[in-house]
Amino acid sequence: MQEKKKDGKYTYFEAGEGTPIIILHGLMGGLSNFGGVAEYFPKQGYKVVIPELPIYTQSILKTNVKAFAKWVKDFITYKGFDRVILLGNSLGGHIALYHTKMYPEKMLGLIITGSSGLYESAMGDSYPRRGDRDYIKKKAQDVFYDPAVATDEIIEEVYAMANDRIKLIKTLTIAKSAIRHNMAKDLPKMHVPTCIIWGRNDHVTPPDVAEEFHRLLPNSTLSWIDKCGHAAMMEHPVEFNRLMHEWLKKLDVAHNLLTEQL
After folding, report:
1. Distance between CA atoms of residues 157 and 53, nearest Å
2. How far is residue 136's CA from residue 240's CA, in Å, rounded to a whole number?
3. Hey, how many other C-beta atoms are within 10 angstroms of the C-beta on 203?
4. Residues 98, 231, 191: CA angle, nearest 5 degrees
5. Contacts of 176 (CB under 8 A, 6+ apart)
6. Is the pLDDT of residue 23 over 70?
7. How much is the pLDDT for 1?
8. d(CA 190, CA 3)
């Protein structure tokens, strides 16, 4: 991935021209988690933008799903985008969902993978205890079907977070916020076209969570990736891109038909 840009209060990666796809990373996830997406879609006529979410930098009062969703809307406005496609993994998926609920007029489409928003018991459980590197290594590996995907670099990142008192407090604040902002009642009213891509072996947000999202979201499609855990775009980038691209082509056709009818 190329260098990140720093623009006023925003830091983000950007590549390509065309319809904007804004990617929202998860709690433990850096921008590099979406390297496969960032590499592929700019060549397909999309502008890929990955902002660094202010997960650990906002005041504790703004450390919640709703405030992050508003931050995303402000970022979209700042970039001058009219309507966007949002892609989110884990907490990023939850923020994308909440943004869709609050600002449907900003949305062309939504893509979620391993998203929170319905099932949060995993959130409480997956927060690392301080200090214990072996425990943290095991937790990081559990996120993936293939534990080798949890590189030393990823383990180190999680370990540093768990040993930073302020980050730990904010992480727990976000976990509580995720439970508080459960979206089960909102989803049936959300008609934005939604693509759900899920790992069949996701232990953090199990497959029945994907089924539930699909059941509750009126305009959704659900695709599975086998031998895949909680971060499909990292474990199976080629298959993830293929499924996402197929859906985007259909979205494009539907959008063009609608425009013609209007």
Report:
1. 16
2. 27
3. 16
4. 30
5. none
6. yes
7. 61
8. 35
Instruction: Determine phi and psi for 27, rounding to 5 degrees.
Output: -65, -45
- Token digits for 21? 């796809």
**What pTM did the predictor assign?**
0.92
Q: Using only C-alpha atoms, what is the Rg of the chain?
A: 17
Question: How many contiguous H segments (helices) and E segments (strands) does the chain have?
Answer: 10, 8
Looking only at the bridges linking them, the beta strands covering 10-15 and 5-7 are: antiparallel
Mean pLDDT of 70-92: 96
Q: Residue 47 and residue 93: Cα distance in Å, rounded? A: 19
Stated length of the chain: 262
pLDDT at position 256 over 80: no
Write the pLDDT tens digit of every residue in 144-172: 999 999 899 888 888 888 888 888 888 88
Whether residue 57 has pLDDT greater than 60 = yes
**Amino acid of residue 191:** H
What is the longest distance spanned by two Cα atoms in the chain? 60
